[in-house]
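Hi Y.,

Following your request, here is the sequence exactly as I used it, all 108 residues.
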Amino acid sequence: MLATPSGTPACPDTARQHRLAAQLADMIPGVTTIRVSLTDPKQAWPHPHAIAKDAAGEPIELSRTTARVAARWVLRVWPDADWTRPHTFDLAAATLTRSDLAAASRRR
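Below is the corresponding structure, written out as tokens. Let me know if you'd prefer a different format.
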């Protein structure tokens, strides 16, 4: 779990994280992870953006509205995360990790 500079967990309410995972799983069938960032490749300025993937790691097509809503929900559950970098929300574990850290751990 990510922590604020004081060392306090960014989102100590794990029930909230699990509710979010359940809501996103209902909204996006087959999703296992959602990568969230403030960099929408189709926008010149920061915008909430999400990329959903299934269990095989294949992208799931999302409408612009669904992608933006999913990203906003994740941003609201973890407001203290460093959103200058993308993060990945694992729905099965209801955990959020920085995408570059998650990629580094998979390469080991």
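Residues 37 and 83 are 7 Å apart (CA to CA).

Thanks again,
Q.
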